[in-house]
């Protein structure tokens, strides 16, 4: 059945449209529901079937309303509708490139920096982004946190006086009810050495209706509290998102943004400039631009590191200074700013860089066909640290031993 304009109009006019729980209940997760919004291609239809059981698929009606019904290259559609590219050969062995599981002393609590932790308080999300860093756990019922597991994590935080900053992440922490989130924030606020709480949430983008006055009242009780959201494209800057961010700011919650650089979605300077300019109009500070992680099934969405450096360079001098995000790669040794002072050069399919903690890191990053590297060409140093994978991604010898810079 083709795109159904009448069904789409009926949903947009539904009196429950602004109710976030209605939006969650009406999430799209089958072909028939999707046809109310777009005319799916044969490839998309095949991928919906093929990815079943591989990675969960859900889209809120709000986010679906931003999709182009007829253009499969729509940047919104490409973030959330599966395509057969996800099933093509990739570094499928890599589920956890940041070694988060190895750094989790208790379930879903990642302690990789001395004074900070990331606490995955839920595996639930309102949508499932096809490039998600935490595909290994989001959407997986086994990775939801029971109350006793939350208690174990809270005990760990209370026992470690060196932790001053906790990031609530997931999944999406704002998919918790106000009551459960309020309880959790209250428990965190009982821990005297926790100076700040941060929340990572894509709700202002994918389900801005979730940012209710009641939720803002809960957040206001937990200050100092910061929120980082995740806009990737100017099409996502909807009136609903503007209103949601405004409510957060009025509740005293500073809002920053983390964008993931994605091929065919935002990997050109004009799109990125429109995005960051829109964000500062919204009073959201563009914070990080992330190089997409090497997650199985996402090769079609990853860019070269040279492309990201070129985009950030093109922003400099052409927009407000604080609108320019820091382009980074997250590694098990910390976040590496991808600029000339950290990036040492290209060694074939790897980009070699210094890391904040010292060891050199080789990021697997093959150049797309016809793209020419602008980095110095170097030899891959012996013994350099790289992604740990059983697969041998590019036919080079696997090297995992760290080496000091
Ligand atoms: S909202 Fe964030 S955690 Fe959830 S699927 Fe998207 S990228 Fe992953």
Give an overview of the whole structure.
The protein is α/β, with parallel strands linked by helices. It folds into two domains: 5-82, no CATH class; 109-343, Alpha-Beta Barrel (TIM Barrel). Helices cover 27% and strands 16% of the residues. The protein has a nine-stranded mixed sheet. Helix 13 (305-315) links the parallel strand 7 and strand 8 (326-331). The chain binds iron/sulfur cluster. Iron/sulfur cluster binds next to loops.
Summarize the helix and strand pattern as letters. Answer: HHHHHHEEHEHEHHEHEHEHEEEEEE
| CATH architecture type of the largest domain | Alpha-Beta Barrel
- Percentage of residues in strands: 15-25%
Low-confidence stretches: 391-405
User: How are the strands of the largest sheet arranged?
Assistant: 1-2-3-4-5-6-7-8-9
CATH level 1 name of the largest domain: Alpha Beta
Overall number of strands = 13
Instruction: Please identify which CATH superfamily of the largest domain we are dealing with.
Output: Aldolase class I
CATH topology of the largest domain: TIM Barrel
Mean pLDDT: 91
Number of individual domains = 2
Can you summarize the main beta sheet? 9 strands, mixed
| Class inferred from helices and paired strands | alpha/beta
**Small molecules bound:** iron/sulfur cluster
Question: Quick gist of this model?
Answer:
The protein has 405 residues and is an alpha/beta fold.
Structure characteristics:
405 residues, alpha/beta, TIM Barrel, 2 domains, 9-stranded mixed beta sheet, 4-stranded mixed beta sheet, 27% helix, globular, disordered C terminus, binds iron/sulfur cluster
């Amino acid at each position: 059945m083709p795109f159904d304009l009448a069904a789409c109009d009926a949903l947009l006019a539904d009196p429950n449209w602004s109710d976030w729980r209605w939006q969650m209940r009406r999430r799209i997760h089958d072909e028939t529901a999707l046809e109310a919004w777009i005319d799916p291609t044969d490839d998309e239809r095949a991928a919906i079937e093929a990815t079943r059981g591989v990675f969960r698929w859900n889209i809120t009606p709000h986010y679906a309303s931003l999709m182009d019904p007829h253009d499969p290259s729509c940047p919104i559609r490409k973030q959330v509708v599966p395509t057969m590219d996800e099933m093509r050969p990739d570094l499928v062995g890599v589920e956890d490139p940041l070694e988060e599981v190895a750094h989790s002393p208790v379930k879903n609590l990642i302690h990789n920096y001395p004074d900070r932790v990331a606490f995955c308080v839920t595996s639930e999300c309102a949508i499932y982004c096809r490039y998600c860093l935490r595909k290994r756990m989001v959407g997986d019922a086994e990775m939801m946190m029971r109350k006793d597991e939350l208690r174990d994590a809270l005990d760990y935080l209370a026992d470690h006086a060196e932790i001053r900053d906790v990031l609530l992440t997931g999944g999406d922490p704002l998919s918790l009810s106000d009551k459960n989130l309020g309880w959790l924030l209250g428990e965190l606020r009982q821990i005297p050495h926790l100076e700040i709480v941060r929340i990572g949430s894509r709700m202002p983008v994918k389900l801005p209706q979730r940012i209710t006055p009641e939720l803002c009242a809960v957040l206001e009780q937990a200050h100092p509290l910061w929120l980082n959201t995740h806009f990737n494209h100017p099409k996502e800057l909807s009136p609903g998102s503007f209103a949601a961010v405004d409510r957060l700011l009025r509740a005293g919650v500073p809002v920053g943004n983390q964008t993931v650089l994605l091929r065919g979605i935002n990997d050109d300077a004009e799109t990125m400039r429109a995005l960051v300019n829109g964000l500062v109009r919204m009073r959201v500070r563009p914070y990080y631009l992330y190089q997409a992680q090497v997650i199985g099934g996402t090769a079609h969405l990853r860019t070269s590191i040279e492309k990201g450096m070129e985009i950030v360079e093109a922003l400099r001098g052409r927009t407000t200074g604080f609108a320019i995000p820091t382009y980074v790669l997250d590694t098990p040794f910390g976040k590496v700013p991808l600029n000339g002072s950290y990036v040492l050069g290209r060694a074939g399919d790897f980009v070699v860089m210094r890391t904040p903690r010292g060891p050199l890191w080789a990021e697997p990053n093959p150049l797309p066909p016809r793209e020419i590297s602008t980095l110095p060409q170097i030899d891959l140093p012996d013994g350099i640290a790289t992604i740990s994978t059983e697969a041998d991604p590019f036919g080079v010898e696997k090297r995992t031993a760290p080496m000091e810079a």
